Amino acid sequence: DAGQCQLESWARHTRDGLEWTAVPACTVADTEWSLGLTRLPGQSAAQWAVGAKRVLVAPVQRRWGLAASASLGGTAHRPRSDAWNLTVPLTVALDAQDRVQLYLNLGWAHHAHVQGRTSGVGIDVALHRDWSLLAESARDADRQRSSQLGLRRVLWPGASVDLLAGQVHHQRTTRWLTLGLNLAAPP
């Protein structure tokens, strides 16, 4: 919503070590602006990404919502951007109570030596007032498909914790466990 701010953050444990990410975002002039910072295991420079997302059709107007987003990214050692992506996210409520949400993403990404189509599908199923089941599968510009499955626990309005397990398909050694914290500033 206009004037709202939030923080999405997570720690992801992989075979290579611990990855840390924080993405604060605020909505100004009908556009959500974000700055993401990621620290990958074994890399001395943090990665950054600046993003903008604009809602084209709000889900409150219909049983679905549509947005457009773009981001630029790079590393702290090279402040010049060497990666970008464009994405069109679609959200569809699958039931009258909005307890089951389907998320679809279609986009295009360009990173260092790779560019190509990206796609993703996810679902959020409210199991109880404070618990949700999360499932997601995505394909990146490298044509690698990954999936994750987990739970979300609402701590209080505007705060939740996620616990997810995932893996890159066809790479049994590329698995992860993610603990996420999501905070929204009160209106």
In which order are the strands of the major sheet placed?
1-2-3-4-5-6-7-8-9-10-11-12
Note the main sheet: 12 strands, antiparallel, barrel
How many H/I helices?
Answer: 0
What form results from the Cα inertia axes?
A: globular
SS-based class: mainly beta
Number of strands: 12
Separation of the first and last Cα atoms: 9 Å
The chain-level mean pLDDT equals 93
Helix content range:
under 10%
Characterise this structure.
By secondary structure, the chain is mostly beta strands. The protein is built from no helices and twelve strands. Strands 1-2-3-4-5-6-7-8-9-10-11-12 form a twelve-stranded antiparallel barrel. It is globular, with a radius of gyration of 17 Å. The termini are close together. The mean pLDDT is 93.
Quick structural overview:
The protein is mainly β and 187 residues long. It has strands at residues 5-14, 17-28, 31-39, 47-57, 64-75, 83-93, 100-111, 114-126, 131-139, 145-156, 159-168, 175-184. The chain is built from no helices and 12 strands.
Annotate the secondary structure layout.
Layout: E1 5-14, E2 17-28, E3 31-39, E4 47-57, E5 64-75, E6 83-93, E7 100-111, E8 114-126, E9 131-139, E10 145-156, E11 159-168, E12 175-184
Antiparallel strand pairs: 1-2, 1-12, 2-3, 3-4, 4-5, 5-6, 6-7, 7-8, 8-9, 9-10, 10-11, 11-12
Name the features.
187 residues, mainly beta, twelve-stranded antiparallel beta barrel
